[in-house]
Design a protein that fits this description.
Jelly Rolls, 5 helices, 262 residues, four-stranded antiparallel beta sheet, nine-stranded antiparallel beta sheet, alpha+beta
Length: 262
């Protein structure tokens, strides 16, 4: 599948999410899983000084460690790793024709597309943290990124903390626009979730979901003995500017990153 059907576009626009099925073949998926393990263990041929990395647990600290650049030690207990567009394997996956077509449908056929963040997300076995209800948005940008492609590297289940959504909630607009990271207050959570239909996005290994960034979502902790790993790419119009002066990598269009030969 290199593009969405009219029916799929209508479902995405109505519900704010769409199951895309498996996009990568078995060999490609296995390679991505091996590469992220190598990145966590510090053996991948990368410039770690440009990688934003966060441990799930740090001794003597309550909650996750800080999100800072650089390797934090050889462990599989990372919570987040960003800037994966600088890894050739992950970049090649991000640049699949299907994802190009989705971005063209959202931002315009001729619009250059950048990556706000290409992020590994992990709930290690028996660990992970509750992530309360929120929308994915950032107040330092002059326009909101609108789409995220979420790929399950492991099966995602209720027991291991899969994503939970409220279908159609993206059409409510920005629920808490003053919050820089899109999180809802306790009162807003009660108001928005008490009568709303909620769906757990249980996925098989390799399954992909397209998400509107304003779709309300949350996730729980991992109560199993296996990790819940995922790769999430947020695509945005390349003309987007950050008040902080942050630069973003072009993924589709003139000046796009090119994967290095493997």
């Amino acid at each position: 599948m290199d593009c969405l059907t009219d029916e799929q576009w209508e479902q995405f626009q109505s519900k704010g999410y769409l199951h895309l099925g498996r996009v990568a073949g078995a060999a490609e998926l296995d390679a991505l899983k091996r590469r992220i393990d190598d990145i966590m263990l510090g053996t991948a041929p990368l410039d770690y000084s440009r990688m934003l990395m966060q441990l799930d647990v740090v001794e003597g600290r309550e909650g996750p460690g800080p999100q800072t650049r650089g390797h934090k030690g050889a462990t599989l207990n990372y919570r987040k790793i960003q800037d994966l567009e600088f890894d050739s394997l992950f970049l090649a996956y991000m640049q699949k024709p299907l994802f190009r077509c989705i971005c063209a449908g959202v931002y315009g056929t001729d619009a250059p597309v950048a990556c706000f963040r290409a992020m590994f997300m992990n709930k290690p076995a028996g660990k992970g943290h509750d992530l309360t209800w929120h929308q994915d948005r950032w107040t330092d940008l002059d326009r909101d990124p609108l789409v995220t492609v979420w790929t399950a590297l492991d099966p995602a289940t209720v027991r291991n903390g899969c994503v939970r959504i409220i279908p159609g909630s993206h059409r409510w607009g920005l629920v808490n626009p003053e919050n820089a990271s899109g999180f809802l207050s306790p009162g807003q959570i009660h108001e928005k979730t008490r009568r709303a239909k909620q769906v757990y996005l249980e996925l098989d290994e390799g399954d992909v979901v397209l998400l509107h960034n304003w779709l309300l979502h949350s996730s729980g902790t991992n109560h199993t003995d296996v990790p819940r790993r995922a790769f999430s790419t947020c695509y945005m119009h390349a003309a987007t500017r950050s008040a902080r002066g942050n630069a973003f990598s072009v993924i589709f269009g003139a000046g796009a990153l090119m994967p290095r030969p493997l």
